[in-house]
Structure formats: structure tokens, C-alpha cells
Amino acid sequence: MFCYQCEETARGTGCTVKGICGKEDHTAGLQDVLIYLCKGISVRNIAARAKGAENKDAGVFITEALFATLTNTNFDDERLKALITQAIAIRDALPKAGENEPDACIWTPKSDADIAAKAREIAELANVNDDVHSLRALVVFGLKGVAAYYHHAEMLGFTDEAITDYMQKGLASTLQDIPVDAMIAMVLECGEIGVQTLALLDTANTKTYGDPEITSVKTTVGTNPGILITGHDLRDMEQLLEQSKDSGVDIYTHGEMLPAHAYPAFKKYTHLIGNYGSSWWHQKEEFDTFHGPILVTTNCIVPPRDSYIGRVYTTGPAGYPGITYIPKKADGSKDFSAIIDHAKKCQPPEPAKTNGRDLITGCAHEAVLALAGTVIDAVKKGDIKKFVVMAGCDGRQSERQYYTDFAQALPKDTVILTAGCAKYRYNSLDLGDIGGIPRVIDAGQCNDCYSLVVIAKALAEAFGVGINELPVVFNIAWYEQKAVLVLLALLSLGIKNITLGPKLPGFVSPGVLNVLVENFNIRKNSTVEEDMKRMVLA
């Protein structure tokens, strides 16, 4: 295998034996082959579209397939094999794209051994550190982020063919010999599509569940048995809440589901009582002490311990061998009765090993813009000197303590703008407020980074300056491919001087890094002291 798509990849260069995430080499191979076949589908479907013969459902399938290959999403070989079979059927039902089709359009495995051999071939080709491979990787990993965010919007009935068409365009481009400048343009276009996708998902969430409200969320536990829901999918959350009301079972959020508490539509469910635990990588300890069943809706799932694997259920793109999977019915609904019945037989959760402090969430663009006058006055009076965007992902490495230390070291006249699970590094700290404005403004999930862009644009308009002239600095943590897409989205908006960490992506070649540095002044974080002087105190 060769995989370098996440921040924790081995030695910062690539996992070659087994993924740091727990992914086995054969699973990585199946995922690589699935992406390869999606490229073949894309080539044929683009050609078919020009003749009015496209498969309109191909984009939906590619969305599902790409999402299944994100880090910490699907570890289930049988589900991945089923997707491969489906991919071949979709591809082969399309007319040929021409006489000289790429191999991805015609290769057909006759056995599992054929799939394994193709996987080894793909891995060998990926293990090349040059600008062309780097740019292709940037496009593919960015598209995985697009697929993840688009999937959530699609589940709520919000779609946009321009987005799925671009997914196919981007995938097809990685099979073509095109100039480096054109490849760089393709990367930035992926960022533009990312902004479009994030805006679509924002519309989907707010039209369906209302505009998030600034909300205080309990982190203590009740006396009833509970169900813990993690991941990102709000439609799954809605169905679980509706089916479990009056059951005597409490619902707790975990990780990226924390922002669900802020949506008006969910506030009517009195059995949604709080958030349990912190970010994704604490699952092993937190799932153990929860005692009740856990519903994993999307990424991130960590290979579970034997002590609780029997209490884990997955749905949507998430999967793990031996774990009960709850599928979607033909009408789009899901039956969560099994997990609810399971919960009734369990003990209530133990208190999570956190400090028990309430967490503030729901500071999305509508809620913050309602306070715009207060915020602008605070800036004009000098009460707020800087906004520090500390959005992104959390991760396991000890070096991520940097983000906690950085937040603690910030002057009291600074405000943190955050979204994503990176917030768990500092959202339980007692950082106080500035004239009633929380010093940690949590916009929500990683996909809610869009809110931060809306807020920044509104501030720029209010002060009559460009977005890069605002008293806003970016100190972003990344982990997986959704974060890659968010970064590309920021670059497509012309945002410069982004500090990225804790490591730079292993898939970015020296040549591509130079382009990013020269055009956008991207740099890796260093020490708290040095970065504080450069970004905040300068």
C-alpha cells in the first residue's frame, strides 16, 4: 500500500505497511481501485454527456464512493468490494469515450487477485514525489472533501449538478497529460467548487433545521441509559431523535455532532441532553465509559476495542467489519429501533473524563452577524485587536498541544474563530468574553468553516478593506481530506498568510509547496512564542 492522504501518515511521507489510522493494506488497495474505477466512469460519462447520453446517477455514485475512501470512514472490505462491482457496472453501461481510452475505462478484474495486483500497481505509481503526482493528489483529496460535504447536502435533498460534474472533470483530469499550470488551475477550481459546496450545505442545514443559535451545551450525564451519536450527518441525528423520543433513552452528541444542539429544530427534543467526550481520537476511552450503544454516522471511526465493539452501529458511508450496519431504505429513511432497544438494556454513562464545563456552540454567521454592531464597536474601540481563525481538525499527536498552548497564550483582546473538531483543544478553557462576545466563537462542524468566511467578508465590507487587510490571522490545524478541501477553498478566495500544522501535507512536493508559498505565503507553524510574535503581536 501507499497512502499519504492524512496528516498522521507515517514519517510524514506515506504509510506503506498499515495505515496509522488502522487501515489494512488490502483495504487501502480496495479503496485505491475504487477511485481508479471512478476515474474511468468520469471519462466515459463526460464523453457521453457531450452526446446527451450521460448517466445522471453517476455523480451520486461517485460522491458515495469517494466519501467511503476518506480517512477513518470505511474499513469494511465487503462493502468496498460491493462498491467496486457497482462501479464496473456503471462504467461498462456507458458508451466508450473513444478508440484510445485510458486503462481505467477498460480494466476489468476477473478475481480478487486481479484487484490486489491493480492495487499494487496504483500504489507504486502514487509513491512518486514530483509535481505532477502532487497536483493530482491535491485534486483527488480535495474532491474527497467535496464529496463528503456534498453527501450531507444531498441527504437533505439539496443538489447541484455543477458540483458532481466538476467531481468527474477533476477525476478525469488526473488521467490526462496536461501542463502543470493547467493542473494548478484545476486545484484552485477545486477550491472554488469547495466554496460552492460549503454554501450549498449551509443552505441545506439552515433551510431544514433553522439558523443555529448561540447555545450552551451540558457535558454532564443523566441517569437514563443513552445513545451516543458521532460523525456529521444531521439527517441521521433527526431520525434518531424522532424515533427515540418517549423511549426513556437519552441522546448525547460526540465530536463533530456537538453543533447539532444549536439548531432550533433539535431543541424540541428534551432527551437530547448534552455532549459526551471530545474529539474523534478519544473514542477508545470515551466509548468504553459511555456504556450505551454508539451510532457512527460518517467519519471519523477509530478501530474499536473488543470491550465495546458490540455496542457500535454504523450508517451512511461509515463501516467496520463485524459491526452492525443500518442501511437506508428506498424512501431514504432509516430504522434505528435496534439501537434504541439495545440502549434500554444498558447502564447509564459514566461521567466523561473532561472538566465538566459547559461548551458554547452555534456561533454561525447569522448569529454572529446579529452581533455585528457590537463586534465592530469592540474593534473600533480597541477592545478586540485580532481575530484568530483556529479552525480545522484535531489529531492524536502530542505536538497538537501547541493549539491549546497557543489559545491560552493569546492576549485577552483576541477572539478565536473556530469550526471543526480542532476546537476541542481549547473550547473547554475558561477564556472569558469581551463585552459579552465569547472569546471562542464556535461556528460548528468543519463544514461550517463557510460561516467564518461569511463573517470575515462582512467585517471586510464594514471596514471598507480587503479580506487580507482585516485584523484576522489564520492558524489552521488539518488532519484529513475535508480539511484539504477547506484549505483549497480559502486559497480560491484569495486568502493569504495561512499558517498550517502541525505538519505540512506529505503529498505536497517541494515544487508545489514553492508555488503555495510564493502565491499565498503559506507556512508551517513553529513555536507558540514565535508564531504569537509573528501573527498576533506584530
Assign the structural class, choosing from mainly alpha, mainly beta, alpha/beta, alpha+beta, or little secondary structure.
alpha/beta
The percent range for helix content is 40-55%
Structure annotation, total helices: 18
Broad shape: globular
* Overall pLDDT: 97
User: How many strands appear in the DSSP assignment?
Assistant: 16
Q: How far from one another are the termini? A: 45 Å
Walk across the major sheet and give the strand order: 4-3-2-5-6-7
Please provide a written account of the structure.
With 538 residues, this protein is an alpha/beta fold. Helices cover 44% and strands 11% of the residues. It has helices at 25-50, 58-68, 77-93, 103-106, 112-126, 131-155, 161-173, 180-209, 234-244, 283-290, 337-344, 365-369, 372-381, 401-409, 449-463, 481-492, 510-520, 528-536, and strands spanning 215-217, 226-230, 250-253, 272-275, 294-296, 312-315, 324-326, 359-361, 386-389, 414-418, 433-434, 437-438, 440-442, 472-477, 498-501, 523-524. The strands form four sheets. Strands 4-3-2-5-6-7 form a six-stranded parallel β-sheet. A six-stranded parallel β-sheet has the order 13-10-9-14-15-16, covered by helices on one side. Strands 1-8 form a two-stranded antiparallel sheet. β9, α14 (401-409) and β10 form a beta-alpha-beta unit. α6 packs antiparallel against α7.
